Amino acid sequence: MKKSIAITRAVSPRMASCELTHVERQPINIALAEKQHEEYQDALRRLGCEVIHAPELPFFPDAIFVEDCAVVLDELAIITRPGAESRREEVFSMAEVLEAYREKIYYIEAPGILDGGDVLCIGKQVWVGLSGRTNEEAVRQMQYILTPYGYEVQGVPLTDCLHLKSAVTQVADDLLLLNPDWVDADLFPDFDILETHPDEPGAANALLVGETVIYPTEFPETALALTMEGIELFLVDNSEVIKAEGGVTCCSVLV
Ligand code: CIR
Fold first, then answer.
1. Site residues for ligand 1, CB cut-off 6 Å
2. pTM over 0.90
3. CA 250 to ligand 1 centroid distance, Å
């Protein structure tokens, strides 16, 4: 397995006041969120990752969602400028953590806005969701940073979801899990596509670690379809993160 460090951050006691865009606010059980986050981090360890904790940010309700703070590639890291103003300051401590792992660190600058949840990288291809949190200017900056390293960066239109990785994630070398109502499968011509079950629109967010996929128990029909495709799943309860409009990719940065 290539990536073996997973950076995570503790649940904020204020998580119930998180940003929400497409889902109704529901009470969040912080103790349960903490337990589920421990189990998620145990899953990462069981799959060969060393879990490193970014500094706690108890006053930032969305602090657990570290994925949005940085995009890490083999050669470099890009520190984002999150689209939600309440989240802008989460990135600084992530930059400090990443200094230990990457010599080259770049920053998205205003007027660019970028959430890491909008960035899907596979090999040298990078898709960037044009969501409410990420704009064309950030795509332009990503192209400027990444083209010299041989990456191809393209902006991707999205509908009705928070981030690109709410709509599509990689679940095996050649296979993407995708919700066709939220993103156009034709944007990924080099890949086979497994569609999420129609009753489970939020089911496209899966975290591939090595050859295993960390996947929420909350989407049983799609989990079954993944298993039928021969994908090995490591199931985790993720109810509290889902209430906060997050998923399994959002809670770690794999380095
Ligand atoms: C937010 O709206 O920013 C958080 N409540 C959820 C962020 C989830 N992050 C992700 O999908 N990468």
1. 18-19, 21, 62, 65, 67-68, 84, 87, 117, 162-163, 166, 244-247, 250
2. yes
3. 7
Residue 197 is among the residues annotated as catalytic for this protein: no
We find that the CATH architecture of domain 4-254 is 5-stranded Propeller (3.75)
Distance CA 98, CA 120 (A): 19
Residues 129, 168 contacting (CB under 8 angstroms): no
Name residue, tokens 């997973």.
6
Output phi, psi for 242, to 5 deg: -65, -40
Q: What is the SS3 assignment for 8? A: strand
Residue 200 alpha carbon to ligand 1 centre in Å:
18
What would the pLDDT profile of 19-47 be if each residue is shown by its tens digit?
999 999 999 999 999 999 999 999 999 99
Q: Answer yes or no: are the C-beta atoms of 247 and 205 closer than 8 Å.
A: yes
Residue spans per domain, the chain:
4-254
Residue 67 phi/psi, 5-degree rounding, is: -55, -30
Query: Tell me, what DSSP letter sits at residue 196?
Result: P
